[in-house]
Amino acid sequence: MMKLGFTLSSEECGPRDLLPLKVELALPSELKAAANLVTEEHIEESVVCGTDLQAHLKEIESYARAGFDHIYVHQVGPQQEECIRFYEREILPSLKKIAA
């Protein structure tokens, strides 16, 4: 499961993003029932939420140390443009400094 995301609060992370289900749910009501099992604490433990530069860098670095050379960052809330700008302005320059 990818653990990086950008959102201003954990409330914007959808429970569907965190369900570790290995089964196919046939009905929307089944998905809703399963999603009710996900708490805000689960979201905060599973997704980097917010604009904390160090939290994002720490998570990316953990994947790099594990040998990943490509990392996909998914914006799980509605702020697509803000996410791109945050990574452009804060994360990418910091990663370039670390890599140098």
Can you offer a commentary on this structure?
The protein has 100 residues and is an all-alpha fold. It has one domain. It is 48% helix and 0% strand. It contains four helices and no strands. The chain has helices at residues 28-35, 40-46, 53-65, 80-99. The longest helix is centred in the last third of the chain and has 20 residues, at 80-99. It is elongated and about 50 Å long. It starts with 27 loop residues before the first helix and ends with a helix.
Topology summary:
Elements lengths: L27 H8 L4 H7 L6 H13 L14 H20 L1
User: How many strand elements?
Assistant: 0
- Rg value: 15 Å
Domain count, please report it. Answer: 1
Distance between the termini: 29 Å
Largest sheet: none
Percentage of residues in strands: under 5%
Whole-number mean pLDDT: 76
Bulk shape: elongated
- Succession of helices and strands: HHHH
Helix content: 40-55%
List unreliable stretches of 5+ residues.
1-12
Overall SS class:
mainly alpha
